[in-house]
Amino acid sequence: MAVPASFSIGPIRIAPATVLAPMAGVTDTVFRRLIRNQGGCGLIMTEFTSSHGVVALKKNTRKPTKAFRYLYFEPEEHPITAQLFGSDPVVMAEAARVCEDQGFDAVDINFGCPVNKVVKCNGGSGLLRDLPLVERLLQEVRAAIKIPLTMKFRAGWNDRELVYLQMGRIAEDCGLQAIALHPRTREQGYSGKSDWTRIAELKAHVKLPVIGNGDILTPEDACRMVTETGCDAVMVGRTASANPWIFRQISEYLATGSYWVPSERDRYDIMRTYYTMLRDKDAMDTVGKMKQFATYFTHGVRNGTKLRTAIYQATDAASILDLVDRFFEHELTIAA
Ligand SMILES: Cc1cc2nc3c(=O)[nH]c(=O)nc-3n(C[C@H](O)[C@H](O)[C@H](O)COP(=O)(O)O)c2cc1C
User: Fold this and answer.
1) Catalytic residue among 99, 113, 223, 231, which?
2) pLDDT of 221-246, one tens digit each?
3) How confident is the model at residue 82 (pLDDT cuts 50, 70, 90)?
4) I need a labelling partner for 219 at 20 to 30 A (CA). Which of 100, 120, 186, 249 fits?
5) How far apart are CA 102 and CA 267, in angstroms?
6) How many other CB atoms sit within 10 Å of the CB of residue 127?
7) Which CATH number applies to 7-256: 3.20.20.70, 3.90.180.10, 3.40.50.150, 1.20.1250.20?
């Protein structure tokens, strides 16, 4: 079974049935557009955004807050989902309305984040231990907006408290339009393997479209997940940060049975494109982002450690771009 050509989230047709996973600190507007521009990605999502932050944003539009930056997107990013976290149903509903007003195509609620800061306030995966609150939250938000509502969640707090099937049923009863499961538990963090049999069980348990997530490293993995679980769409996270071509590769694999593998030159081009986009956006954290992505993008690049080390020591965007140019000019000349 192959990754479907499309799937629907309420009235929105997502084609192909692939989703870029929300990743805090990674999937900002620049990275999302980089992914979109490579082709093959059906839906993109914002980084998780505090519902309290979004509501505060509404009250104070003059000061650019974190929530303001997280919710910024460009027209070419459609279809795009805003992801929210929080545990107060009224605040969450208000925040979802703000997202709807900003032109998002859908709102997603995060029930997966394992980070202590979020869990302590009962947000993210903390809610997996309070299903009545999950239900109230979903009901309140569903009633507050007209655009589709989805949720992304982990399998449970730990292996003794697995709630993914109950979560699926609650989502269905509350009128959500799709659900995404990362089948690790909160206690697992990112250790071990994603147990895809949980995605299969969930798919068999609900009528809602199920998006499968966890440990897709290659186009073959994406197809295997659909075959093994019957999920309606696949969601890719960490692989996309080091391999922004993964969605294009999945599409090519579906169409032809094989896929293009990037060369050193392609790696150079994508790094330069991304860094130039960052510089032009003139974000507050341009240099930090360049350093962060140097780690992702230079994996598998010959002498990549040298480039990374030089980038870590640089202090401004122009010199980082210069380092990238000089490094690849040298490496590509040697290779030629
Ligand atoms: C750096 C990082 C940040 C993440 N931030 C979010 C987030 O904001 N919201 C969310 O629902 N999941 C978040 N996740 C989880 C991913 O969306 C995804 O569920 C997880 O990485 C498993 O998928 P993968 O194996 O394809 O990476 C994050 C993961 C990583 C590695």
Assistant:
1) 113
2) 999 999 999 999 999 999 999 999 99
3) very high
4) 186
5) 34
6) 27
7) 3.20.20.70
